[in-house]
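Hi V.,

Quick status before I head out on leave. The structure for the redesign project is tokenized and pasted below; the design run finished overnight.
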């Protein structure tokens, strides 16, 4: 293993964020997961994330009659959202409901603005923070590419007005947005002009894809070829320049990992997935990268899968509700860093080596340093504090049980050497 000096200045190890920077959330207020209505099992996923995003179908509540007078929290199809979301909040989870209306054609609305406004008001009154307190935020649409910009803006405007009237405390989020013209799976931020008072959160979807169809091959999040970091940076800059008071949430990101052989024929004949180990490593590292860059939240796609070898067919942290390696890795990240927030980057990108510092939310003197390398082989990293400063070390686990300790040894001159590779290592430091 090659030794690599990280060049950290111990005297300035704990450094407050620049006053101009946004306050960083605790990781428990940052890490989210995408669930789905009655299929989601809150007690199973509570160890992984405290934020849950639900794909909430509008047609469950109104059928195909957009003017239907809702009886929320009881959906028109019989689902009791008070019980569904009540079980989530009882498990200590916080709910972001993404209202999807793709199953209702744009031309099928009786009156898009009026019907959307009535629904938004009813939803907010029935489920928002000022009422039952079951839902903290509402996204207006997921990937509404079947709607033109004019049609989506009309639905957004009406629903947002209704939400503000029904419960001003309920946060309003956009659908997945992009810079430039609207696409099939996202809408242009330009269509929000003039509606700035009607939303609190900008959302985006981003997958670390290297090649498009027919392979949809993804790579590790730090890989420049994926433009994952680059594209996050572009949207963060747009937010800073144009909407500095709005939150920015990454509401979909993730990787597939299946145990099945490729399909050989059909649409996904050439599809390429990741290994289970890669899925675990890349998810954990992407959460930390997004936190370091300054996003306000990041929701992983997806909670569960049934092991299909195709795009989005094996994205779950569980397979048939049995934990995959990525589940154990994500639970370790939440358990370790949930009470901590990103403090500063000590090293990144140089030779593919990353070192991030996280500080405890109520005692910044309590610190954890996260170390990893983007590619094999493992590297021996030299840190500028002696081994007596270390409380413990842990390497990201891939299975249930205690995480293994990382190898450490004295480097002389009050330094310590720690071996780290593609699976992150956490170093707990004494106060």
């Amino acid at each position: 293993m090659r030794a690599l000096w990280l060049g950290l200045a111990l005297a300035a190890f704990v450094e407050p964020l620049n006053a101009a920077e946004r306050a960083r959330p605790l990781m428990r207020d940052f890490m989210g997961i995408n669930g789905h209505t009655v299929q989601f099992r809150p007690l199973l996923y509570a160890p992984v994330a405290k934020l849950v995003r639900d794909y909430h179908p509008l047609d469950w509540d109104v059928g195909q009659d957009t003017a239907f007078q809702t009886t929320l929290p009881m959906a028109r199809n019989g689902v009791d959202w008070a019980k569904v979301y009540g079980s989530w909040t009882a498990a200590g989870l916080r709910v972001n409901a993404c209202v999807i209306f793709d199953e209702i054609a744009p031309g099928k609305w009786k009156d898009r603005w009026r019907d959307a406004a009535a629904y938004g008001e009813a939803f907010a009154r029935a489920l928002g923070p000022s009422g039952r307190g079951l839902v903290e935020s509402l996204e207006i649409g997921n990937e509404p590419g079947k709607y033109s910009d004019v049609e989506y803006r009309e639905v957004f405007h009406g629903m947002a007005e209704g939400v503000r009237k029904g419960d001003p405390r309920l946060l309003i989020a956009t659908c997945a947005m992009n810079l430039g013209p609207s696409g099939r799976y996202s809408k242009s931020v330009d269509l929000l002009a003039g509606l700035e008072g009607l939303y609190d959160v900008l959302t985006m979807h981003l997958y670390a894809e290297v090649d498009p169809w027919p392979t949809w091959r993804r790579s590790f999040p730090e890989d420049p070829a994926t433009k994952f970091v680059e594209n996050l940076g572009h949207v963060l800059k747009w937010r800073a320049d144009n909407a500095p008071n709005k939150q920015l949430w990454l509401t979909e990101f993730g990787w597939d990992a299946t145990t099945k052989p490729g399909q050989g024929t059909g649409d996904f004949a050439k599809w390429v997935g990741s290994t289970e180990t890669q899925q675990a490593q890349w998810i954990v590292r992407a959460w930390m990268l997004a936190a370091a860059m300054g996003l306000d939240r990041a929701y992983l796609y997806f909670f569960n899968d049934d092991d299909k070898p195709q795009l989005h067919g094996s994205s779950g942290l569980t397979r048939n509700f049995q934990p995959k390696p990525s589940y154990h890795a994500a639970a370790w990240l939440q358990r370790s860093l949930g009470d901590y927030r990103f403090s500063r980057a000590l090293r990144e990108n140089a030779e593919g080596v990353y070192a991030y510092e996280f500080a405890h939310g109520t005692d910044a003197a309590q610190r954890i340093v996260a170390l990893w390398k983007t590619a094999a082989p493992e590297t021996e990293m030299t840190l500028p504090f002696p081994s007596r400063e270390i409380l413990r070390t842990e390497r990201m686990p891939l299975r249930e049980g205690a995480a293994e300790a990382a190898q450490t040894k004295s480097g002389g001159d009050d330094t310590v050497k720690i071996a780290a590779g593609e699976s992150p290592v956490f170093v707990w430091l004494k106060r």
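Above is the designed sequence. Residues 27-338 form a domain with the TIM Barrel fold (CATH 3.20.20.80).

G. will cover questions while I'm gone.

Best,
W.
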